[in-house]
């Protein structure tokens, strides 16, 4: 999560304000207690504007999920790194930071609050599948480049990336559902060992 | 998940029947649409019995979560294995099976449906923390034994176990939120490689 949080762009635009209000209401009340009324309480303009934009809570939440996941995409480290190993370590550091900022925790909480609904809603599943795919492909590209550079061994880049992304997701999910940062730290340290023993070619370890 | 599913013991006992009704209602409607009315629709006895046992939905769901997590505990492979490597592989195979049975998927869906509420409810967080701790400790014991047996290298058993449990949870969560089994297969295969390259002592690889 960047320092400006997920609402940095056009903060006064109505769509962004509705998204921010949804985020605040979800953060305060959780998914099961979320109502348009409570979203309206966090919205600086007239509540009727929310209804002008969305037919109801379900439509609003799908738009919100799309908004969150776009922010997530924009936030995965993609700057050009010359060294694939350094790039992969940055992805791991970004996903499993030594400490989780308040904004980052609130963001993860919001993404995870809606995930439980996915098995019952295809639109949600598509959103989670899209972001999963994006994160995995981005990571697989880095591993693929590392193999070309002779830094990484000839592993299956898709499989290794799927594994790394599952671990990062799992530890973050445990973090927000147990309130304990330890799962993130254990996963981070051991993922570094995985990179060293499984991915790096012998002479680079 | 064992073949009998989570309701094998005393299936006609009222408490088990309420738990089963909650499970069925949650499976059909998801968390956000869950009501006592809908739980009552799945319950073979009078709905008033549910109110005799629980003050409301929240109390019922906490009892349900406890019930699920007890079943989860009972299901983690704990039989005595002579070989720590074989035991660890059984834990991985159990957590990340080649294919997910219908019962196992429904069970995971139910556990994950309630997880999103955890950041907002300390009782939920405690339940998720308990099961996380149980799973991690059980796995750490196996790794510890493998080190003693000279099968595994001298890694930090707690850290390695935390990593394995985070990966298993992450892949299962991705499985039910995307509807795609591929994350489980990728995590399974690469976790086997992790065991080989990171845990096993050189002469056993």
Automatic annotation (TrEMBL), chains A, B:
Q: Which UniProt keywords apply?
A: DNA-binding, Repressor, Transcription, Transcription regulation
Q: What is the lineage of its organism?
A: Archaea, Methanobacteriati, Methanobacteriota, Stenosarchaea group, Halobacteria
Question: What is the recorded name of this protein?
Answer: DNA-binding transcriptional regulator, AcrR family
Ranges for domain HTH tetR-type come to 12-72
Asked if the keyword DNA-binding belongs to this entry, the reply reads: yes
| The UniProt record lists the keyword Cell division | no
Please name the PANTHER family in this protein's record: HTH-TYPE TRANSCRIPTIONAL REPRESSOR NEMR, TRANSCRIPTIONAL REGULATORY PROTEIN
**PROSITE patterns the UniProt entry points to:** HTH_TETR_2
Its Gene Ontology molecular function terms?
DNA binding
Which positions make up the DNA-binding region?
A: 35-54
């Amino acid at each position: 999560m960047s320092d400006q949080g997920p609402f940095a762009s056009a903060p006064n635009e109505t769509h962004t304000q509705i998204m921010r209000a949804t985020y605040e209401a979800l953060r305060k009340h959780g998914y099961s207690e979320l109502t348009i009324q409570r979203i309206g309480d966090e919205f600086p303009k007239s509540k009727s504007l929310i209804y002008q934009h969305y037919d109801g809570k379900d439509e609003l939440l799908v738009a919100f999920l799309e908004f969150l996941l776009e922010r997530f995409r924009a936030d995965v480290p993609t700057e050009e790194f010359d060294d694939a190993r350094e790039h992969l370590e940055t992805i791991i550091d970004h996903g499993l930071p030594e400490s989780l900022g308040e904004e980052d925790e609130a963001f993860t909480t919001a993404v995870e609050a809606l995930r439980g609904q996915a098995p019952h809603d295809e639109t949600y599943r598509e959103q989670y599948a899209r972001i999963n795919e994006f994160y995995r492909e981005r990571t697989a590209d880095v591993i693929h480049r590392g193999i070309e550079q002779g830094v990484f061994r000839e592993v299956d880049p898709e499989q290794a990336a799927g594994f790394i992304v599952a671990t990062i997701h799992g530890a973050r999910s445990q973090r927000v559902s147990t309130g304990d940062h330890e799962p993130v730290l254990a996963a981070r340290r051991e993922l570094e060992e995985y990179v060293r023993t499984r991915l790096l070619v012998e002479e680079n370890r």
